[in-house]
C-alpha cells in the first residue's frame, strides 16, 4: 500500500526477506504476486483454533479486512523512533521467503530452525516472524505454526492467499499479546525534536541553558523490544519507551488551529512548568519532557490528570492496533473515548493522532458499507453557539428502526463528507502545536498533510460528496478517478488544498533524510496530479529529478567504496550485457516522469529507441515541434534530466536527452543562406561538451559490447537540396527526337523567351526538371546540408531514398566521410548509380551522423520557421483545439527530385586527334583534313554513331559525296565494345573563328525502341585563321533583262603572292585568272546571267550569288589552297534589287511588216507587261506618252489603258495606234503602274515600270 494513502495508518507493514538459496528473480516474482493478490485479506477468511480466544479475534468483526503493505527494505532508525505514535511505520511482520530446504527428515528440521534463528537475530523487534517455504514436491517436511509451505510449480493466487491467511491468523494471535501489553502500559512517549524557532533563538543568543536538540526519544541500548516470543505463550517484552519516567509537561498551550491562517500563526514554543523545572535536574533527560507517568508530578499537576493522560495515549495506540487488525467499529469507539480525554487535557499531538485515526476508521467503515456515526468530537469549534449550529446541521442520527439501513449509511457518509474539510484542517493545526520546546518531526507532519490533501483533492473532484467510486479510490487506489470538470465546492477550493500541500513540500533546512525528501516529493506530486495542476506538478518533478540524481550518485559512490573501486569505474562493473539491456527496458517509470516534465516545461523530447530497428520510418513530423517557455529554463532542466539518466546508468536515456538538449538549442527552422548571429541558446563550449558526452557514451558502451547505443540527430532540416552535377563532355545525354534538328539543346539561348512572364515566380508553376541517369553508370550527386550549431558535425554515410520502394535504388559508390562546418549550408558530393531503369523520385536521404543512428531526412528546399502558438492557453496542450491551432500555420514543404534512369549505354572516349593538341592552323578559306579516333570503353554494349554535328560550319564529313557534318541513318558508324574507329573530316578556315566543337551522337547498337536518349561525345577544337584574299567595294549594274554586271576589288592580305581564279557556275566565259602580289589590289569585273525571276527575299539572293561565284586561290607550290569567302562582299538592298531584276517589266514593239514608216500611215505599237512575282497583280494602268510641244505624231483613241490584273509568272499585251505627221525620228514612251480602287484598303507594295521606242518616219510616198 502506498505510504501516502489516506488509510495508510491502518496498514500492517510486512518486510519480505530472501532466505536460503532463493534467486533474486524468483524472490521478486513472489513479492510482486503478493502485492497484487494479497494486499487485502478479509477477516472472514482467517481461521483460528476453536479453543483459542484472542483479543483481536477475526470472529468479532468478520466484515473487516487486513491491509498488508509488503516491502523489501528495512526501516530506518528514525522511523523506529516514531513507534508507537505511528505504529504503521515499523514492520510488524517479517516474512522469510525460502527455497532449497531439504525434504530429508534429518536435515530439514535443522535447516528450518536455522532459518527461524536467522530471522529472529536479524529482526528481534517485530511482532511476528514467519517463513514461506517454496517446495517443488507435495510431500515434504511437516510445517509448524510459523512455517507455511506452498508449491513453487506455477503457484496460483489461491495458494498465495491461503498462505497469507495463515500468516495473518498467526500474526493476530501475537498482535493481541502485544496489544494487551501496550494497553497495560502507564505511559506512551511522544516523538519530538527541538523546534526550529527555538534552535534558531538559542543559536543567536548562545545560551548555555539551551536544551539539547534532536529527537525526544532515547535510543534503546539493549535488544529488548517488540520481538515475538521464541516459545509459544511467552509474554512479549515491552519497549523501552513504555517504561516509567518522570515527565515534563507544558501547560498554558494555546487552543489548536482550525483554519489555514491559524496554522501559520500557531506558536512554536510553550512555557514549561515551574514545578517541573524544580522537580528534575537541568541536564537530566532533557529530551523526554513530554512523557507522562503516574509518579513524580509537581504540585501544579495532579497525579490523576497525568494518569488520565497516559491512559488516553495508551488507549489511542490500542485503538490504532484494533484498526490495523480490522476491528474498525471497535477502533472508532475507542478512539472517540480516548481522544476526548486527550482533548480535555490539552494533549494536542495525541488529540490530532486520535482524530486522524477516527477519520481513517470512518473511511474504512464507509468503504466496507458498515454502519457508523460521526462522533461529536469531529465537529469543529467548542461547546458554543457555532458548535451547536454545526451539530444541528450535520448530526442527523436517526434510529435504525425509523430509517432503513442503507438510508442511515448514506446519511453518515454525507455527514462525513461535509465534516472532512474542517476536521482535517483542525488536525493539521493540532499537529503544528508543540509541547514545550519540542515539536513533531517534519516527516510526520508532512506525510499527514499529504494524506489529508489527497482526501481533500478527491473530495474536491467528487464535488464534495463521497461515493463508492471515490471511496474505492481512496482505499484501494483503483480504479483511477475519471476526468471531470473541476467546479467550486462550498468550503473547499483548489487553492486552499494547494496551499496546504505546499507546506508539506520539504526544504533543504528541514534536516530530513534524502530518501524521505524524495518520497515526500512523490507524495506532493501525486496530489497535484489529482488536482490537475500541471505547472506545479512539473515544478515538483524538477525538484524530484534533482534529489533522485543526488541519491543515485551517493548510492553509486557507496557501492564503489564498498567494492574498493573508483566511482567512475562503477559503469564497467555491470554484471553482463543482458543485465544491462534488461535495465534499459525497465526504465519505463523514469521515462514517463521525464516525459511529463518535458510536457509541462515545453520541451520537445526525442522518442526513446532501444535499437536502430524498433521504429517505423517516416518523414519528420514538423507540426508537433512547438516549444514554448523560457529557453534558459528548458536548457537548465534538460541538464538535470541528463544527470539523472547518467546516475541511473541508462545510456539510451542519456542519448535521448542529449539529442533533445541540442535540438532545443538550435532554431526550429530551415535556415537561409545567411545565418543570423546569436541564434543558438547556449555557447559553443556548452554545445561541444554535450556533443562530446554523446561520443563518450557511445564509445564506452561499444567497448562493453553494446554497439547500438546511438543518439537521434537533432536537426530534422539537415537535407536542404539534392541536385546532380553537370555531366562531363563525354557523358551528356540528349533526347532522340531532337537529333537532326538545326538547333541542339545546349545551343539554345538561355532564359525564358518572353520579356516578361508573370508566372515565372509563382509557386508550383514551373515544370520540374527531370534528371536523366544511365543504369550502372556513376553520376555525381550534390547534396546541400545545413548545420545550425556552432560545432562541426561528422557525416559517416549517405544513401539516397527513392519513392519507388526497394526496387528503385541508387547505389552509393566510394563515399568518403566529410565534416559539416559550423553554422553553414555546405554541399557534399555523392557518387551514385541507378541499379534499374525507369522513372522515380528522390524523396530524401538516409544519413548516418557520427554517434547517431542512420536516419531518414526529407528534402526541405525552401526556408521555413516554426511559429509559436498564438494563444497561451494552447501552449503545451494536446486538446483538439490546441492541435488545430498549432497546425493552422504554414508547414514546411518537402521537395522531390525527378529522375529518369535509362538502360545501360555505351561510352565513347577520344583516343586520338590528328591535329596536334586539338589545335588547327588555317588560312581563310583553306581546306585541310582532320582524323578523329574514338574508343568504346564499355565492355558489353556496342555503340553506333548516328549523327555528327558542329556549331560553326568549319567541318565536313569526308564521304562519297561532300557532306557537311550532320547525318543520320545512311552512314551509321558502329564501334564494337573495346574497339576503336577513325572518322575523317574536311576542315575549312573561316575568318574570325577561334574555336569549334565536333559533336558525335551515339547510342547502343542495335537501336532499341526503349532507347529514348542518345549520348553525345563533344570534341572541342581550337582554331587559328589567317587572312588571305579579301573582296570589297562591290558594284552591280543592270545589263539586260537576263544579265547584270558585277565588279569588286580583290586584295591579297597574306605575306606571299597567291594565284587566283574567278569563275561563275554554268558560265565558263566569265572566268579570270591572275597572280596577286602581297598587298596588291585588282579590280574584277564579270557579267552574270540572272538565274531566276521571283519575289524571293533579298537575303536569299545574297546567299545564292555567293554560291554561284567562286574565287579559288593557291600557293605557287600547290601545298595550300582554298576558296575566298564572299560573305565579306557586302551588297546593299538596291544592288540586290538590280541582281534580282524588276518583278514587273514592260516592253514595246511595232506590229507590222518592215521597219519603215511613212508620214500619214497608221502604226500599231504593242506593249507587253510581264509579272514575275509569285502572286497576281492588282489593277493597273498603261499610259502612252507622246512628245510634248511638238505635233509630229497623232494618236487614234485614248492614250491609256486600264487593265484588271496580271496573273503570276505571266504577261499581258495592249496596243496603241499612232499616225506620224512629220518625217523624222519620234520617241514614244510608255509607263505602267498599279492603281488603287475606291474602297480598297489592302493594297500591296506600289510599283512602276516604263519602256521607250524610237520610230523613224519617212516622207510620204508620192509627195516628191
From TrEMBL:
Biased composition (Polar residues): 214-227, 241-269
Any one annotated GO CC term: trans-Golgi network
Protein origin, superkingdom: Eukaryota
Keyword tRNA processing: no
Composition-biased stretches (Low complexity): 270-279
InterPro entries named among the record's database cross-references: Ig_TRAPPC9_Trs120_1st, Ig_TRAPPC9_Trs120_4th, TPR_TRAPPC9_Trs120, Trs120_TRAPPC9, Trs120_TRAPPC9_N
Disordered: annotated span: 207-313
Domain Trs120/TRAPPC9 first Ig-like as annotated: residue spans: 728-888
Alphabetically ordered keywords of this record: Golgi apparatus
Compositionally biased residues, Basic and acidic residues: 302-311
Trs120/TRAPPC9 TPR region domain ranges (all copies): 417-698
Protein name, UniProt field: Transport protein
Organismal lineage: Eukaryota, Fungi, Dikarya, Ascomycota, Pezizomycotina
Amino acid at each position: 500500500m502506498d505510504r501516502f494513502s489516506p488509510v495508510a495508518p491502518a496498514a500492517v507493514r510486512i518486510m519480505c526477506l530472501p532466505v536460503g538459496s532463493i534467486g533474486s528473480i524468483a524472490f521478486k516474482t513472489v513479492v510482486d504476486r503478493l502485492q497484487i493478490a494479497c494486499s487485502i485479506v478479509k477477516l472472514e477468511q482467517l481461521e483460528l483454533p476453536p479453543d483459542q480466544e484472542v483479543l483481536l479475534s477475526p470472529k468479532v468483526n468478520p466484515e473487516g479486512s487486513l491491509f498488508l503493505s509488503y516491502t523489501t527494505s528495512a526501516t530506518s532508525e528514525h522511523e523506529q523512533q516514531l513507534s508507537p505514535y505511528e505504529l504503521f511505520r515499523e514492520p510488524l511482520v517479517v516474512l522469510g521467503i525460502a527455497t532449497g530446504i531439504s525434504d530429508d527428515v534429518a536435515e530439514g528440521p535443522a535447516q528450518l530452525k536455522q532459518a527461524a534463528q536467522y530471522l529472529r537475530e536479524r529482526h528481534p523487534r517485530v511482532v511476528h516472524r514467519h517463513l514461506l517455504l517454496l517446495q517443488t514436491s507435495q510431500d515434504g517436511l511437516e510445517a509448524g505454526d510459523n512455517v507455511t509451505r506452498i508449491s513453487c510449480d506455477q503457484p496460483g493466487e489461491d495458494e498465495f492467499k491461503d498462505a497469507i491467511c495463515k500468516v495473518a491468523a498467526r500474526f493476530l494471535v501475537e498482535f493481541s499479546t502485544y496489544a494487551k501489553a501496550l494497553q497495560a502500559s502507564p505511559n506512551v512517549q511522544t516523538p519530538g525534536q527541538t523546534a526550529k524557532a527555538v534552535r534558531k533563538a538559542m543559536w543567536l543568543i548562545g545560551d548555555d541553558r539551551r536544551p539539547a536538540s534532536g529527537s525526544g526519544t532515547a535510543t534503546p541500548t539493549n535488544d529488548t523490544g517488540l520481538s515475538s516470543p521464541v516459545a509459544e505463550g511467552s509474554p512479549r517484552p515491552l519497549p523501552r519507551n513504555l517504561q516509567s519516567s518522570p515527565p515534563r509537561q507544558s501547560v498554558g498551550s494555546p487552543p489548536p488551529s482550525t483554519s489555514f491562517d491559524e496554522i501559520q500563526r500557531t506558536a512554536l514554543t510553550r512555557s514549561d512548568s515551574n514545578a517541573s523545572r524544580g522537580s528534575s535536574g537541568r541536564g537530566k533527560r532533557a529530551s523526554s519532557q513530554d512523557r507522562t507517568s503516574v509518579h513524580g508530578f509537581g504540585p501544579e499537576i495532579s497525579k490523576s490528570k497525568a494518569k488520565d493522560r497516559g491512559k488516553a495515549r495508551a488507549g489511542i495506540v490500542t485503538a490504532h492496533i484494533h484498526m490495523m487488525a480490522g476491528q474498525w467499529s471497535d477502533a472508532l469507539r475507542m478512539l472517540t473515548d480516548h481522544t476526548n480525554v486527550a482533548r480535555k487535557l490539552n494533549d494536542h499531538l495525541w488529540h490530532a493522532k486520535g482524530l486522524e485515526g477516527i477519520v481513517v476508521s470512518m473511511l474504512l467503515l464507509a468503504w466496507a458499507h458498515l454502519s457508523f456515526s460521526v462522533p461529536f468530537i469531529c465537529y469543529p469549534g467548542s461547546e458554543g453557539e457555532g458548535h451547536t449550529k454545526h451539530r444541528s446541521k450535520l448530526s442527523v442520527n436517526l434510529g435504525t428502526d425509523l430509517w432503513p439501513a442503507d438510508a442511515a449509511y448514506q446519511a453518515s457518509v454525507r455527514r462525513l463528507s461535509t465534516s472532512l474539510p474542517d476536521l482535517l484542517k483542525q488536525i493539521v493545526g493540532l499537529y503544528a502545536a508543540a509541547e514545550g520546546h519540542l515539536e513533531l518531526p517534519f516527516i510526520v507532519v508532512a506525510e499527514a498533510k499529504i494524506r489529508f490533501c489527497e482526501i481533500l483533492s478527491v473530495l474536491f473532484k467528487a464535488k464534495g460528496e463521497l461515493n463508492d467510486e471515490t471511496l474505492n479510490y481512496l482505499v484501494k487506489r483503483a480504479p483511477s478517478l475519471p476526468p471531470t470538470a473541476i467546479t467550486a465546492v462550498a468550503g473547499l477550493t483548489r487553492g486552499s488544498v494547494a496551499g496546504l500541500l505546499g507546506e508539506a513540500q520539504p526544504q533543504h533546512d528541514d534536516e530530513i533524510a534524502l530518501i524521505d525528501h524524495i518520497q515526500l516529493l512523490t507524495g506532493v506530486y501525486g496530489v497535484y496530479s489529482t488536482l490537475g495542476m500541471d505547472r506545479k506538478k512539473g515544478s515538483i518533478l524538477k525538484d524530484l529529478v534533482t534529489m533522485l540524481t543526488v541519491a543515485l550518485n551517493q548510492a553509486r559512490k557507496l557501492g564503489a567504496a564498498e567494492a574498493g573501486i573508483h566511482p567512475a569505474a562503477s559503469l564497467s562493473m555491470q554484471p553482463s550485457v543482458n543485465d544491462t539491456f534488461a535495465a534499459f527496458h525497465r526504465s519505463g517509470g523514469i521515462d514517463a516522469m521525464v516525459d511529463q516534465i518535458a510536457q509541462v516545461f515545453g520541451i520537445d523530447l526525442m522518442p526513446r529507441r532501444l535499437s536502430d530497428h524498433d521504429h517505423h520510418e517516416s518523414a519528420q513530423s514538423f507540426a508537433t515541434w512547438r516549444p514554448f517557455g523560457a529557453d534558459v529554463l528548458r536548457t537548465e532542466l534538460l541538464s538535470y534530466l541528463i544527470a539523472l539518466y547518467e546516475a541511473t546508468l541508462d545510456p539510451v536515456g542519456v542519448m535521448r536527452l542529449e539529442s533533445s538538449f541540442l535540438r532545443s538549442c538550435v532554431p526550429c527552422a530551415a535556415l537561409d543562406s545567411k545565418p543570423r548571429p546569436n541564434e543558438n541558446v547556449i555557447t559553443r563550449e556548452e554545445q561541444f561538451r554535450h556533443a562530446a558526452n554523446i561520443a563518450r557514451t557511445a564509445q564506452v558502451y561499444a567497448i562493453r559490447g553494446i554497439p547500438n547505443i546511438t543518439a537521434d540527430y537533432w536537426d530534422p532540416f539537415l537535407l536542404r537540396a539534392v541536385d546532380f552535377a553537370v555531366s562531363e563532355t563525354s557523358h551528356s545525354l540528349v533526347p532522340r527526337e531532337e537529333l537532326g534538328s538545326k538547333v541542339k539543346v545546349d545551343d539554345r539561348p538561355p532564359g525564358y523567351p518572353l520579356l516578361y512572364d508573370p508566372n515565372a515566380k509563382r509557386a508550383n508553376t514551373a515544370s520540374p526538371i527531370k534528371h536523366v541517369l544511365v543504369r550502372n553508370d556513376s553520376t555525381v550527386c550534390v547534396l546541400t546540408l545545413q548545420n545550425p550549431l556552432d560545432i562541426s558535425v561528422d557525416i559517416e554515410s549517405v544513401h539516397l531514398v527513392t519513392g519507388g520502394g526497394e526496387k528503385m535504388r541508387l547505389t552509393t559508390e566510394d563515399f568518403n566521410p566529410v565534416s559539416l562546418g559550423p553554422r553553414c549550408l555546405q554541399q557534399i558530393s555523392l557518387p551514385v548509380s541507378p541499379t534499374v531503369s525507369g522513372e522515380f523520385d528522390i524523396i530524401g536521404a538516409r544519413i548516418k551522423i557520427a554517434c547517431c543512428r542512420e536516419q531518414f531526412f526529407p528534402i526541405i528546399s525552401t526556408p521555413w520557421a516554426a511559429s509559436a502558438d498564438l494563444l497561451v492557453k494552447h501552449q503545451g496542450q494536446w486538446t483538439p483545439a490546441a492541435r488545430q491551432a498549432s497546425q493552422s500555420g504554414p508547414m514546411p514543404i518537402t521537395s522531390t527530385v525527378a529522375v529518369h534512369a535509362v538502360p545501360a549505354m555505351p561510352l565513347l572516349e577520344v583516343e586520338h586527334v590528328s591535329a596536334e593538341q586539338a589545335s588547327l592552323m588555317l588560312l581563310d578559306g583553306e581546306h585541310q583534313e582532320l582524323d578523329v579516333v574514338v574508343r568504346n570503353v564499355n565492355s558489353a554494349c556496342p555503340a553506333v554513331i548516328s549523327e555528327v554535328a558542329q556549331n560553326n560550319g568549319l567541318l565536313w564529313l569526308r564521304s562519297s559525296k561532300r557532306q557537311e557534318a550532320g547525318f543520320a541513318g545512311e552512314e551509321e558508324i558502329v564501334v564494337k565494345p573495346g574497339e576503336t574507329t577513325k572518322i575523317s573530316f574536311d576542315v575549312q578556315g573561316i575568318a574570325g573563328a577561334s574555336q569549334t566543337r565536333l559533336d558525335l551522337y551515339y547510342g547502343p547498337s542495335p537501336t532499341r525502341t526503349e532507347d529514348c536518349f542518345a549520348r553525345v561525345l563533344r570534341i572541342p577544337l581550337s582554331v587559328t585563321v589567317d587572312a588571305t584574299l579579301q573582296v570589297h567595294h562591290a558594284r552591280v549594274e543592270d545589263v539586260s533583262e537576263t544579265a547584270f554586271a558585277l565588279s569588286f576589288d580583290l586584295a591579297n592580305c597574306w605575306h606571299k603572292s597567291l594565284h587566283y581564279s574567278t569563275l561563275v557556275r554554268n558560265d565558263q566565259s566569265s572566268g579570270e585568272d591572275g597572280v596577286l602580289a602581297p598587298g596588291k589590289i585588282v579590280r574584277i569585273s564579270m557579267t552574270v546571267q540572272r538565274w531566276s525571276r521571283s519575289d524571293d527575299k533579298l537575303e536569299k539572293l545574297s546567299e545564292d550569288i555567293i554560291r554561284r561565284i567562286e574565287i579559288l586561290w593557291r600557293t605557287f607550290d600547290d601545298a595550300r589552297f582554298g576558296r575566298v569567302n564572299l560573305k565579306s562582299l557586302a551588297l546593299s538592298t538596291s544592288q540586290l534589287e538590280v541582281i534580282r531584276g524588276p518583278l514587273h517589266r514592260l516592253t514595246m514593239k511595232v506590229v507590222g511588216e518592215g521597219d519603215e514608216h511613212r508620214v500619214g500611215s497608221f502604226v500599231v505599237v504593242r506593249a507587253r507587261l510581264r509579272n514575275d512575282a509569285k502572286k497576281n497583280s492588282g489593277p493597273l494602268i498603261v499610259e502612252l506618252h507622246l512628245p510634248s510641244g511638238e505635233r509630229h505624231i497623232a494618236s487614234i483613241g485614248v492614250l491609256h489603258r486600264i487593265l484588271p490584273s496580271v496573273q503570276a509568272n505571266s504577261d499581258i499585251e495592249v496596243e496603241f495606234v499612232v499616225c506620224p505627221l512629220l518625217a523624222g525620228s519620234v520617241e514614244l514612251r510608255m509607263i505602267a503602274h498599279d492603281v488603287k480602287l475606291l474602297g480598297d484598303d489592302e493594297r500591296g507594295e506600289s510599283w512602276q515600270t516604263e519602256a521607250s521606242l524610237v520610230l523613224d518616219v519617212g516622207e510620204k510616198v508620192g509627195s516628191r
